[in-house]
Design brief:
By secondary structure, the chain is α+β, with helices and mostly antiparallel strands.
């Protein structure tokens, strides 16, 4: 069943039914303020960091699913509906959701009343704009009400969902005209608040959730909406919300537009208050100035036009014109758009990642550079230096860091031994794109400590040598806690429920080795050699070349299984990803990277590996991670064997590593096969 189609002319994906199998989301924002928005208006907003500065609440794994967002209720007579269908779920006479470049537009109607809602984050502004246009398509005057609704998060998303003994007592708001100010904790250590306003006089408001929903109420039928009367409630503790009530009258054929703004406002500490702090009146100067920038339909539409121009210019840097319409569509629009999303979020916030647990990944952010460096080279340079600053002096790194503080996340720590090599990969991509070797001269801290800074070139040297200095019994790289596959935990040995596979057990096991990291070492080591030579570091370049050549021999001797590359050796020096194994005989990752590194290309190993991938791992929906899946838990393998067969890392299909096989197929000269692999995970193919 199809739920939508691509509109290439407008750079949109148009969803034609709200009842998609799962919520299909878009990402709004390109700088500091971001929102996630689904095809039914679910989602949330945050400033810089989805964990530490979340403006609105979202409940993951909720029932009904995706039932918290930025909502607009339309009440005409006894009928209550929403432009995005949720949460009232009233059957609509018409519905479309247009997910575009940094904006989403909802077009729907009920009983000859048409609603068009466009949500976007303006360029250079820390806010989300919701432009709601209502049109009377009937032959009679229509009188109805509109109720807006957001539920404020008390900033720290983890604390917000756990620390109820405090949170039920801290909620505070101010209301001035049509503007609602959420100021929880502003009285103490915070110097920021949230603004939710509309550019029209209101007929009522609510800021207390229980008052809005009613006792034991639900957002599908809030008491205020059902009764068609706001309560003008002021939150005091408990759960602050923002709701405006607008009474609207439209003549036949008439339209009215309202502009709502949800914003993050930050004041200098010395300018927090109007008058005395003990009077508790926040300084609204910056909020009022921002509201004036979007107080008319014309201003809102001008900002939307600027946003579309921003994306048009960004996507014009690299374009393809081919005989394959679907290829052009993905390369010219959606691949690049997705790469910008990963630059902004690095998978830290989505409908599968809550934005709470992981922050920005060291490996993830380095990998992402390969996709967006041509779009925003200046910001790519900044990102590389931010990433490198979370390295340790021995060349290892925090596996994750928080985007707000740009400091390493100690909860997960380090020990993922592929991380250092990804810094070389990302840097090489940047230099190849820009020719900017001056980045190598930048003074860059270790562990975010300026007193430990060296030039950036030294960071790369330590990254490369970290692998050289951490070899196992077969002279292959030690895997540490894990490599790219975070669920292959060969030094964990967890037997108790609740233990983290990524942090339990020793981080530096003496035996477990990764053939995948060996492939990385050869592939990106060659880039490191070129960088060294450009710097005149001939001795270091020669040392690196010798180490790479030795690693190639090691992979062919100890990492080749006859028809494909092994995945790893476990703590007991047993093979993983071998024909000798009961399950998990062949893995995708080393086939991709060892072939991209051209290990054994002349000897025919690379072609054999690709033939084995096609024979054993291929499906019509893409290449699975391994085969056969593990059918029982292996304490010596960790999380990968904890999943049922076919789920996630236990023989699931990953869109991330399928392109490695496409690239590898070009290495062995099989272009048609590379294309086939690409199309099987490509959204435009379905």
């Amino acid at each position: 069943m199809k739920f939508g189609y691509f509109d290439d002319a407008n750079k949109e994906y148009v969803i034609t039914s709200p009842k998609t199998p799962l919520p299909w989301i878009n990402y709004l924002g390109s700088e500091n303020f971001f929102s996630l928005i689904s095809n039914t208006c679910g989602g949330y907003s945050f400033y810089k960091d989805a964990k530490l500065l979340r403006l609105t609440r979202y409940r993951y794994n909720n029932v009904p699913f995706d039932s918290n967002g930025h909502y607009y209720y339309i009440k005409e007579g006894d009928t209550i509906w929403n432009p995005g269908w949720m949460p009232a779920k009233t059957d609509l006479d018409a519905y479309e959701c247009h997910h575009g470049m940094g904006y989403s537009t909802f077009r729907s109607s009920k009983n000859d009343l048409q609603a068009e809602l466009t949500a976007f984050v303006p360029v250079g502004k820390n806010c989300e704009i919701n432009q709601l246009t209502l049109t009377n398509n009937s032959k009679e005057t229509k009188d109805f009400s509109v109720f807006s609704y957001v539920e404020f998060c008390l900033w720290n998303a983890m604390d917000d969902m756990t620390n109820f003994q405090r949170n039920f007592s801290t909620g505070e708001v101010e209301v001035h005209g049509s503007a609602i100010y959420h100021k929880t904790e502003y009285r103490e250590r915070r110097n920021h608040y949230a603004l939710y306003a509309v550019n029209a006089p209101v007929d009522g408001f609510d800021t207390d959730r229980d008052s809005f929903l009613g006792a034991y109420g639900e957002n599908s039928a809030p008491e205020v909406v059902v009764s068609d009367q706001s309560k003008n409630s002021i939150a005091s503790g408990w759960a602050p919300v923002g709701s405006h009530h607008l009474k609207v009258s439209l003549a036949p054929g008439e339209s009215k537009t309202f502009v709502f703004i949800l914003a993050y406002i930050e004041n200098p500490v010395e300018e927090k208050w109007i008058g005395r702090a003990e009077d508790g009146k926040i300084n609204r100067t910056r909020a009022e100035a921002l509201m004036k920038e979007f107080d008319t339909k014309e201003k809102s539409e001008a900002a939307l036009a600027e946003l579309k121009k921003y994306w048009d210019e960004l996507l014009s840097h690299f374009t393809v014109s081919s005989s394959e319409e679907k290829l052009d569509r993905m390369v010219n629009i959606w691949h690049q758009y997705q790469c910008m999303v990963t630059f902004n979020m690095s998978r830290s916030a989505s409908y599968f990642e809550s934005g709470i647990g992981r922050g920005m990944g060291f490996r993830d952010s380095c990998q992402d550079l390969l996709g967006f460096v041509h779009l925003i080279p200046d910001r790519a340079r900044e990102r590389i230096l931010d990433i490198a600053a979370t390295q340790f002096e021995d060349g290892s790194a925090y596996h994750q860091y928080q985007p707000l503080t740009k400091k390493g996340n100690s909860d997960i720590g380090s020990g993922f031994n592929d991380d250092p090599l990804w810094l070389i990969a990302g840097t090489a991509a940047y230099i190849k794109e820009t020719g900017d070797y001056t980045i190598l001269d930048e003074k860059t801290p270790y562990d975010s400590d300026p007193s430990k800074a060296t030039d950036f070139m030294e960071h790369l040297r330590r990254s490369f040598h970290y692998t050289i200095d951490h070899l196992g019994p077969h002279k292959l790289p030690l895997i540490g806690r894990a490599d790219w596959n975070d669920c292959l935990n060969l030094n964990c040995f967890s037997t108790e429920p609740g233990e983290s596979f990524q942090t339990f057990g020793p981080s530096e096991g003496p035996n477990a080795e990764s053939v995948f990291i060996a492939g990385m070492f050869v592939r990106y080591g060659k880039d490191y050699v070129e960088i060294c030579r450009h710097r005149g570091l001939e001795d270091e370049a020669k040392l690196a070349e010798d180490a790479i050549a030795e690693m190639e021999k090691t992979v062919l001797n100890a990492g080749w299984d006859g028809e494909w590359f092994l995945r790893a050796y476990d703590h007991y020096k047993n093979k993983i990803g071998s024909k000798e194994c009961e399950d998990g005989k062949i893995f995708i990752e080393p086939q991709g990277f060892c072939v991209m590194a051209e290990i054994g290309l002349k000897e025919g190993n690379c072609l054999k590996a690709m033939e084995s991938v096609e024979k054993y791992l291929d499906t019509k929906y893409g290449i699975v991670l391994l085969q056969p899946p593990y059918h029982r838990y292996h304490v010596e393998l960790g999380e990968i064997s904890s999943y049922p067969p076919g789920y996630k890392e236990n023989a699931g299909i990953f869109c991330h590593n399928n392109p490695w096989i496409s690239i590898a197929e070009t290495v062995v000269g099989r272009g048609n096969r590379a294309w086939q692999v690409y199309t099987r995970t490509c959204p435009a193919s379905y």
